[in-house]
């Protein structure tokens, strides 16, 4: 059997020692683990961004992978610490909505437990670093074979982010920019299935409406062209060919996006 | 036998989920793999930078290592998807010149194949993310033992970058800044063998010529001194001791560099 | 037995090929190794920052872990190359004080050797990249079973950083900002044990004194509040709830911090 795979997703950044501390804790408890960095560049405290990241990346991992997710502005308060099983993936993280999008897209009903069994934690638990003291060690214990039901009781009502899906009619779609990638591409939350054809106009926030050419892929338009296309994860996307759309349009995640079709074009 | 080693080199950055998606795809197909990050900080679409990176790093890996390289502005267009074998290293990436410098420095004739066998890809191939849909799964299949010749036919004329080697005479050398590292050191493409002694003058672009002291290593001159030396990969280099030469001189990769020797100094 | 764990800590950044080169060297010599990135975002030449990083992260790793640490402004000069064993951890790096804080906090007397046995290095040693030519290969040889005593002779007087511990009286504590994490939290070097209760005033450098509320954890105060608390590694810390204290206060590592207690509050 392959050695246990444990991934890390945090907002800890790359220069502080916190991520390395978690790696040390995991390897010390489960020496055969393979720890895999997903990202540590979630914007500080940005639960929404982390939820999108996890929903996009986690489903590609083999069933049985363990994911430790620490974007945790409420660390040390009364917020619960969670284990959740989603379509064969095992995840650990705070009860703050981090898993909202994964749960929504799950094929099977997700299972959620509250971590209460302190014997799977570090002996002393700090008020500010549960990644080190609770999530990493609990994940390592699971990797060593502790059954999930020993981690704590079922937790039937976890916190969910108030994320609205895009709302579409026959002439318009309203959604939001749910992610901006490192290229500056703007990924909306409007599913490809809701966009049967080229919208006449694309309006971001209160900016003037844009009339964007539709492309299959970036290389279909000359560099510097602002285009619309379907993202690789199946959403309506706005991109600047070989440029940075977010910077050119000054757009940030969370802004509203409105697609409109003129009746004549339907 | 050690478990298969698969490295990743991309321009995807560290905050978007794309790299993690590729890791998931690889681990799902080849659970025993060890995936190794080379870099995800290639500047967007900068094939030249990636070519230098690969030519510098790849040869140090053990023969048999598999490298997945995705800097791919032409994704989804007619550009081919490649597998290439260079001095025992296996590489996957788009046919856009990414492997130019590796091929040029190869000790044995490189072998290039076009990836055509869709049975080694994900069942649905997107127009914008071949890292996930073609390169990562093909690499994972190779790691599982699929012979390279099954991936697709030989591809005798891959795209090559129009990179000129430095041109040297007995009194001058003309080359370019081929890389700027994270310290701000300026690595030219002028090989050490072409620089028998201290040049009298170093001219970058159209800036005023510099008269730079020659050092064996950074610590041989006081902090703040602009020096010339041989880089650890064997090129003429310009550095600012304990400072950032690129920032101080405002130099970017691709700028011309001219070394001149006064006849009297020869 | 689990495969050898070799970690990397450098100031090489994420875009240059140097870290990947070291990974290649290690895997080529020790194909069964698992190479783990700690950080490559130490500020260039910042030995003090690296010393804090290592002292914070290394002790969490399982005994027997090998750590390669390259923040090395004196590379290629007369400075020694070191192996040190600290509480069961094996470390390699330049003799410039990098291990000062690890040595000070060690439970058992650390052992230090000077790397002199060139048979464990690359055949040609450059003047500017000992990470590749000395530290990585020596670490890989140790991982393959070479006993530490073969690496070189004992080195009884390694360089130590002139880092002063915080100085505390019954009414005041003087220390410094020893680290700023990626959240912008200011971690001082004043140990929790020296701070029996809320200081009346906190003075950073020559700024006006601050009267900071004391919290157990960030979530105990509203977003935007400047607070004081104990860091997860046991030091007095100043944070801006859901914000960046370093940016708001314009504070950098190394600045003085003074805590004062009014006699009446004792």
UniProtKB/TrEMBL annotation, chains A, B, C:
Give the UniProt keywords, A-Z. S-adenosyl-L-methionine
Tell me the ranges covered by the S-adenosyl-l-methionine hydroxide adenosyltransferase N-terminal domain, including all copies: 6-152
SUPFAM superfamilies for this protein: Bacterial fluorinating enzyme, C-terminal domain, Bacterial fluorinating enzyme, N-terminal domain
Q: Where is the S-adenosyl-l-methionine hydroxide adenosyltransferase C-terminal domain?
A: 175-257
Signal peptide start-end? none
Q: Name one Pfam family in it.
A: SAM_HAT_C
Kindly indicate whether the keyword S-adenosyl-L-methionine belongs to this entry. Answer: yes
Does the keyword field hold Cell inner membrane? no
Q: Which InterPro entries match?
A: SAM_HAT_C (IPR046470), SAM_HAT_N (IPR046469), SAM_OH_AdoTrfase (IPR002747), SAM_OH_AdoTrfase_C_sf (IPR023227), SAM_OH_AdoTrfase_N_sf (IPR023228)
Q: Which residues cross the membrane?
A: none
PANTHER family linked to this entry: CHLORINASE MJ1651
Annotated family = Belongs to the SAM hydrolase / SAM-dependent halogenase family.
Tell me what this protein is called. SAM-dependent chlorinase/fluorinase
Species name: Thermogemmata fonticola
